[in-house]
Amino acid sequence: MQPLLPLAGLNILVVEDDDDIRFFITTVLEADGATIVAVPSAPAAREVLPQLQPDVLICDIGMPGEDGYTFIRKIRALKPDMGGQVPAIALTAYNDSEDRIRALEAGFHTHVSKPVSPGELVEIVANLFASCNW
């Protein structure tokens, strides 16, 4: 009998402007059973969010144009049926305590510093989903 994949059945939206990091996140999470939609910008994410209704959102902070802080504030202003309450992870190179506080105040549930190991990423996503969906 094959062990269950920790993220089996989860739909995850990844918002990351760096192609290599977006590929890394997608590869790691798909290997653990998640279905991923990965987009390179906040505007692209807002287009797919209402239809996708992801179980978890992973978003970079330092994106050109619209940063992750602005993006998550706009998401939190949406109604729940439009994705406004999606559990959200800030995955960012901005990693001091002020950045963490700013991310949480903007509306992210957790702040994770890059680089992140594959195992840590899977654990963070699984734990966030479990804590927000009991």
TrEMBL record:
SMART domains: REC. SUPFAM superfamilies: CheY-like (SSF52172). The modification 4-aspartylphosphate is found at D60. This is Response regulatory domain-containing protein. The keyword Phosphoprotein applies. Signal peptide: none annotated. The keyword Phosphoprotein applies. It comes from Nostoc cf. commune SO-36. Coiled coil: none annotated. Residues 11-129 form the Response regulatory domain.
